[in-house]
Amino acid sequence: MAGTASGAIWVHGELAPDGSLAKISTEVATLARTLAGAAGTEVLGVVIGADPTAAATELATFVPRVLAVTEPATADHAAGTIVGQRLAALIEREKPAFVFTGAGPEGRDVAGVVSALSGWGVLVNAVGVAWEDGPVVTMSVFGGKLTTTSQFTTDHGIVTVRPNAIAAAPAEAAGSVEPTTVDVPLSLPQVKVVDRVEEAGAAAPIEEARIIVAGGRGIGGPDGFTVVEELAEALGGAVGATRAAVDAGWIPYAQQIGQTGKIVKPALYLALGISGAIQHKVGMQTASTIVAVNRDPDAPIADFADLVVIGDLFEVAPALLAALRARAG
Ligand SMILES: Cc1cc2nc3c(=O)[nH]c(=O)nc-3n(C[C@H](O)[C@H](O)[C@H](O)COP(=O)(O)OP(=O)(O)OC[C@H]3O[C@@H](n4cnc5c(N)ncnc54)[C@H](O)[C@@H]3O)c2cc1C
């Protein structure tokens, strides 16, 4: 392997369940490339997995070089601990300056393991990063009530980046993939996966949907979600929900949007019977267009929606559905 310039910025490429590159990693790679440009340093991707080739090849469309480490143990073990150990060993060997990863479950695990093994600090859940002799990291904390800006006091560190905070954009030219080995024993206890059950709703990943139709407590019960699902289907979108609807057992947690659910950034967010509480808002406020249907003109969502339809959703939603179906012929 060719030597890696010290001071480089690394991006950890996560594998999606089908072996492709996770969407969050395309966003993190775009950010890391921009920062490396500002810093005048190298940007390099690292993909570690049972079969890293497809994801590494995809990551190479965002950054000029990608190290692909084959790690069979991730096939039936929780990936984060193993990937974190391999990444820490690579960091020890190659000495990059900063490592960027996603702020999802795997990225958080990886950041924690790398921090523990390397003694590096971590800045978590970045919503924006600038460069001034190092990353200047903007983080949204306390459910979006406070925005902090932080820098490392050392010349190295790990940053986890919140999903949907950065618009992914491939590089002008595709880079190279370099198969790499890391011959260090895995010393930390492993977590073996004994069963995998596909989550209900996983067929329509809401983090990646361009259109989301979401239902809240105003939907009134599980049957109320029928019209939400029909509208989502008619619009070619995915179904989302508030925590109130999830806690009531009307819809699986996989569809929850907000502080303790998913962060989404669709082109259109259609909110039905949702009040717009801060904990929900932080998960969907960056949607390009927010349309709310609410019978209460003073609902908080009216303050940040682009369009509010004041009315009973059980009248408005079926009328909208009928109009969409009529238009589709
Ligand atoms: C630590 C913490 C974390 C949280 N995390 C999340 C999170 O991740 N996601 C999340 O969503 N919430 C979260 N919450 C909960 C959040 O505070 C709100 O309670 C929740 O978002 C409210 O959901 P809702 O809008 O569906 O319900 P409500 O606030 O009860 O609003 C229902 C709305 O429906 C309208 N409505 C009722 N009937 C109709 C009708 N027939 N037609 C039209 N409109 C109608 C009402 O006017 C009202 O505005 C969290 C709370 C805490 C404390």
Overall description:
The chain contains 8 helices and 14 strands. Helix 7 links the parallel strand 12 (268-272) and strand 13. The longest helix is centred in the N-terminal third of the chain and has 17 residues, at 23-39. With 329 residues, it is an alpha/beta fold. Helix 5 packs parallel to helix 8. The protein folds into 2 domains: 9-180, Rossmann fold (3-Layer(aba) Sandwich); 206-328, Rossmann fold (3-Layer(aba) Sandwich), CATH 3.40.50. Residues 1-6 have low confidence and may be disordered. The radius of gyration is 21 Å and the shape is elongated. Helices cover 28% and strands 24% of the residues.
What is the topology?
Blueprint: E1 9-13, H1 23-39, E2 43-49, H2 53-59, E3 65-70, H3 79-94, E4 98-102, H4 105-118, E5 122-131, E6 135-141, E7 146-151, E8 157-161, E9 176-180, E10 211-215, H5 225-235, E11 238-241, H6 243-247, E12 268-272, H7 278-284, E13 289-294, E14 307-310, H8 313-328
Parallel strand pairs: 1-2, 1-4, 2-3, 3-9, 4-8, 5-8, 10-11, 10-12, 12-13, 13-14
Antiparallel strand pairs: 5-6, 6-7
Helix pairs in contact: 3-4, 5-8
Flavin-adenine dinucleotide binds near residues 242, 260, 280 and 295.
Please give the domain count. 2
User: What is the overall pLDDT average?
Assistant: 91
Beta-strand content estimate: 15-25%
Strand order of the largest sheet: 7-6-5-8-4-1-2-3-9
TL;DR of this structure?
The chain has 8 helices and 14 strands. The protein is an alpha/beta fold. The strands form 2 sheets. A 9-stranded mixed β-sheet has the order 7-6-5-8-4-1-2-3-9, with helices on both faces. The chain has a 5-stranded parallel β-sheet with strand order 11-10-12-13-14.
